[in-house]
Structure formats: C-alpha cells, structure tokens
Predict the structure.
Amino acid sequence: MEKQEIITRINNFLIEEFELEEKQLQPSASLKETLEIDSLDYVDLVVIIEKNFGFKVKGEDFSHIKTLQDFYDYIIKHAKSN
Amino acid sequence: MNRVVITGMGIYSTIGKNIEEVRQSLYVGRSGIGIDPYRKELGFRSGLTGILEMPNLKGEITRRQRVGMAEEADYAYVATAEALKQSKIDSDFLDKNDIGILYGNDSSGKAVCEAYDVLKEKKDTALLGSGAIFQSMNSTITMNLSTIFRLKGINLTISAACASGSHSIGIGYYFIRSGLQEMIICGGGQEINFHSMGSFDGLNAFSINEKEPQKASRPFDRDRDGLVPSGGAATVILESYESAIRRGAPILAEVIGYGFSSNGDHISVPNVEGPAKSLEMALRDANVLASEIDYINAHATATPVGDLNEAQAITKVFGPKTPYVSSTKSMTGHEMWMGGASEIIYSILMMQDSFIAPNINFENPDEFSAKLNIAAKTIKNKKIDMFLSNSFGFGGTNSTLIVKKFK
C-alpha cells in the first residue's frame, strides 16, 4: 500500500468513524489533547486498524504515538512489513 | 407524602415513533406487526414480530456516546429525549438538579451474540471494540442515558421480565412519594431481533398465524394462539407535584397506586391469585374502589392460559360488571420489558382524548373473557378519569399501576 493511500485511509476513518473534521487532521495534532482520542477510543482504533490494514496493534505501542504524524508513521511502517 | 405526577412522555414503538403518531394509531387500531423472513431461515417456529427500524442517532449524539448503546438503548434515547422535551427539561436543568433514572430492561441478546461471533472468528478479545461491554449488559439503557443526560440521582435498571417497565414506574413512584427523589426518568426498553427471541420462540409461546400477521395478536379472543414479540422504548418523567408546579411543567396525569406480588409458583405459567393480589394492592394503595376505575389496560398477551387467568383475576376483583378492558398488545404485539411503561402512555393518551383504543382481533370471547367488558372497537367519547394497567412476567412477577387525570 502506498504511503499516501495509507494516510488517506487513516484520515477517512478518523472522519467517518471518529467524526473528526478534515481541518482538524493536521500532522502535528496531538491525538489526546487536540483530537480528543480517549482511552476507550484506543480500543476501537485497534479494531479499525485490524480491519483496514490487516495487523493487530499492541496496546503498549500506542504509548509512543503522540501526534497524528506518529500515527501515520507507525501504520506505514507496519502495513508495509505485513 | 408527596403527590407523584407525570410531566413528560416519549415513545418509539411499532405503532408510531413519537407520541402524536402513536395517538393516531391507537385511535384507528393500527397494527405494528409483520414478518421477519430470516427467523424462518433460522428455524424459528414463528417469523411474526413487531416491525421497527432503528433510529439514526448520528449527528444527534456523539460517537463516544453511541458506541456503547445496544439496540434498546437507541430506542430509549429517542423516547427519553421526547419525554424530557415535553417536560420542559433543558440541558441547564439537567446539570443543576439531581434527576434519577429507573428503567426496565431484561436482555441485551443481540449485543452478546454479536460480540461472541467476533470472538469466535478472531479469537482475540482486543478486537471486540470498546462498546461491546456497555452494549451487552442488562443496564445498557440506564448506563448510557445517565451518561448522555448527565443524571445525578438514583441510577439503576429494573429487570422483572415482562413487568419491568411497570415496576420501574411503580418503584419510581415510591421514591418520589417518600421524598427520596424529586424527579425520575422511568420507562422500559425492548430489543427487537432474532438473537434475543430464539429461545422464547422455542417455548411454542408465539402465534404462528403468519398468513395474516396483523391478525395474529388476538388477546382474549377464543382463537388466540400465542403472543407476537415486539419492542421499542417508552419513557415517562415522574416528578413530585411540588417540583412540577415550581417549574411550571405540564402535568399530564397523576400516579396514585402501585400494587405488586409474586406468584411463588411456576416459572412461566401464571396463576389467578398472584395477579389478583397485585390488583387489590394497587386499589388499596390508591385508596379507591374498583368501581371508580374507568378503564383497564390488560396485560393480556394472547397466550391461551395467560389471558384466561388474567380475565379471572379481573373478574375476581371487579365482579361481574367490569370497566372497559382492552389489550393494546393486539396492535403492538408484546413489548415485553417495555410494555408496562408504554401501556401507561397509551392509556394516558386515551385519557387525554377521551377514547378507548380497540382490542383489535377480538372476535369471539372464551368462557372467561366473555365476563369482561372488552372494547373490540374504538370507544369514542368515553371520559376516563382513572385507569388501571397490569403487567405480569416470567417468574410470576406482577405489577399494577393506577393513574388518574390530574385535577
């Protein structure tokens, strides 16, 4: 999967499933503070990532993902290696 | 002792998705029954069911609020939003007051089954998502609505089979009457899906008159052959009279009596003594005579033995001259955990508009229903000052409520 395709797919599910607005999706945006992804949302992110990219995120990996850019990078790395 | 009044009503049902639609359906005797063909594929004995589409809550409440809501919680949200609006309760009032919730619900079968399906396929609990637990618990309605509406009073689910909705109002009435709480959201919610109904179908309790779905639910009729499962949600706002007057809320009716009993008998076959005891207790609590009741909204679900025993219990308490009796389940089907609450709303609508909704499909009485004054057609221009509503459930739980016109 191409890098841009992955980013588009992530943005789409954040807009569709998490009801975020496109303008909020700045790469520097903090997942917790800016996008208000809470602890229960992370549980749903695991499910959505598995559906969209076919791999299972380990809960502890989320502790290193602070911004949307971190999130993109993490998925790009793991989606490619799968 | 506080007087207890109803200041708001809301409903999402198979005969209307709001109070006004339901009011019209009751008057004309509209049925909400149809067929779910997939039930037949699954080996159900009966495909008959109440037909109701899911409300679309996207845009109405946030994703975080929605994900933990099971089907019945969606219905209950719509009913409760309507009731709060009618009661003139806004967001500011919700924040500044201790409002309780006592809501009837006794299953969340679909949510449990769907979570298990995912688990079987994925073999990983992490893939069940965050909402599964909140959807699959019996208290899904109270836990979600108390969060959405920021409720700060009593908060619990009443599980009492098909009397759940009625007991929720009865217990709410006791809480307010005794001064423990000034306002409580009461009601009942019922999922409509094959997941939750297969085991009930297996008891051979459902009507199999699939050729004429709208004639299948025939409470008190000689040729009844079982109930039709149905559902939705119904909410009433119970409030102390003083609170209602203080804030200028519309007073729709007054709850004056609650009776209850347990049969102490068979798990599914009702008897006569238990329900009769509940009726008598409600009359005593209300301090009224049976002759003062203008209308009885019967529990009658259209099972052969249930209707037979209820007819005998009514005759035992009311004597040979009963008030008008009808079972609105002839139109709605059996709304089960919701029914005791929705039937209070149906009866209040009749009281407001001075009519008695028909017990449709009542064509021929049996030996015991012949002793009741059953309204087979809409009774127009019938003044109702006081009504009684029965709800009985598995395990022999009985609940009776008496409501009167507010004066």
